[in-house]
Design a protein that fits this description.
It catalyses: alpha-D-glucose 6-phosphate = beta-D-fructose 6-phosphate. This is Glucose-6-phosphate isomerase. Belongs to the GPI family. This protein is an alpha/beta fold and 548 residues long. It has 3 domains: 4-69 and 305-431 and 465-498, 3-Layer(aba) Sandwich (Rossmann fold); 110-289, Glucose-6-phosphate isomerase like protein, domain 1 (Rossmann fold), CATH 3.40.50; 433-462, no CATH class. It is 49% helix and 11% strand. The chain is built from 22 helices and 13 strands. The chain has helices at 8-21, 25-31, 35-38, 57-69, 72-80, 113-133, 157-165, 184-191, 211-228, 245-251, 277-283, 285-304, 311-325, 343-355, 379-383, 387-392, 414-431, 435-444, 449-459, 477-498, 506-523, 533-547; strands at residues 40-43, 46-49, 107-108, 111-112, 146-150, 175-179, 199-204, 238-242, 258-260, 330-335, 373-376, 399-406, 467-474. The strands form 3 sheets. It has a 6-stranded mixed beta sheet, sandwiched between helices. The protein has a 5-stranded parallel beta sheet with strand order 6-5-7-8-9, with helices on both faces. It has a two-stranded antiparallel sheet with strand order 3-4. Helix 12 packs across helix 20. The longest helix is centred in the C-terminal third of the chain and has 22 residues, at 477-498. The radius of gyration is 26 Å and the shape is globular. Bound molecules: 6-O-phosphono-beta-D-fructofuranose (F6P).
Length: 548
Amino acid sequence: MSGRVELDSWQKLRQSVLRVEQQHLKTMFDNDTQRFDKFSRQIAGVLFDFSKQRVDDQTFSELMQLADECDVAGWREKMFSGQKINITENRAVLHTALRNRANTPVYVDGVNVTEQVNAELEKLKAFSQRVRSGEWVGYTGKAVKNVVAIGVGGSNLGPQMVTDALAAYADDTLNVHYVSNVDGVQIASVLKGLDAETTLFVVSSKTFTTSETMTNAKTAVEWFLESANDKSAIAKHFVAVSTNLDKTRAFGISDENVFTMWDWVGGRFSLWSAIGLPIALYLGFDVFVEVLEGAFEVDEHFKSASNQDNIPLLMALLSVWNTSFLGYQAQAILPYDQALHMLPAYLQQGEMESNGKHVTFAGEQVDYTTVPIIWGMTGINGQHAFYQCLHQGNVIVPADFIASIEPQQQVGKHHEILLSNFFAQTEAMMAGVNAEQVRTDLAAKGKSESEIDDLIPHKIHKGNRPTSSFILDKIDAKAVGRLIALYEHKIFCQGIILNVCSFDQWGVELGKGLASNIEAELTQEGITHPHDSSTAGLMAYYKQKRKN
Ligand code: F6P
């Protein structure tokens, strides 16, 4: 047993499901003209509207009670103060210390990590400035023009998402390219056209053992040496971000070219650490600091706002309500901003790797659905792909809609058209279209009664589909920092409420081990491991065809 279903609030919320299921969101709005004011919140640069979620006053107060009974505030304090709440790995969870702009001391095992973080930030600053200014030169004395960032999962998604989101502010000092997939097609296409003399590789891996990253890094070294033909030149073209100095040394990267992170930084929360180096290189160190500052603002909000005004907590409670009570098993992320096109992928890792768990902190089976399937894409493209299902499918998918007031680039009336869609879609998902509206519409178009009767069932939109809306001032560095931190803290609160350890990823570790065994079978003669008939058959088929 999870210990959650016995809570008074949990029991009450279960009862509330029956009441809420009888109510249509449109009726809730019709009956309460204050609903938007009641169920929306603001912090600097962000409006969060959850009035189109299926909550009423009673549910809201029961969710508040749930947060209290789960002691979210107590756990929040434990996280910020460096207690080892990642119990399965005996680690603190301190990505917040990486953006602690107040510089207050935070201790792990008696060491003030704030000092370590600041020292590393200084190193990052000095290096990124040397590279950007052209002071750092390659083996032939030329300045760096292209940065190739090699890493996967949290060592890739965060930096890539942020540099894509802020590309509109980049000058033409450097280009940045990312390689995450072990499929050789990716690195081959990135390296094509690059010049070894002006290329800097950043190999980012917390463990420096991740096979995909190591394979790509070795290929990069081989490619580089084909031109440089001198191993000593590697020092000018390869830097690493890692906790594992033994491995970076063994790889051939000298210590002064290694930026460190710490075991209390989870991979999927690591973009605030030196893992963010590509951000500083591409956009400048000051922009990287602004991203940290935006996140820090949200940390302060998360720590100090009351439960009922605490946006990350509200996001988490709504997610638990939708998933574990109303039974919605998916959650769409729909940015109406091209700059945020990678946000769905980023949050997919953030939420699913964190809370995709089946046991509680204490190792008991949970008796409710934990994490929903997170997916999505930019809203406009989604409208022409999967919104049909969001509007009329019989699987209900709650969705987060994200837009900004100011576009990064003002091009004609594009932003007004984009935002019109943003507003229209959430309204339609909430209100739907009933038979009477369809009849009136079709009659006005001159359809006969029998045609109208035939079409009505197809054109009815039941509505009552929950959405939250976020409106940011503008997608700039601070806004990106704020947005990511809001979701990070949401994921944390969600984990606490669900009573799962959000900070480990044993499921991913399993996959890493499995693939390495099979790799030996594919590449070396005479090695076989026992497999089921399907896996053995697939491998035999592959090997046979590959030989021909
Ligand atoms: O995807 C699983 C994971 O363990 C992530 O948590 C991490 O971000 C990623 O692998 C990469 O790991 P590393 O930085 O050690 O290469």
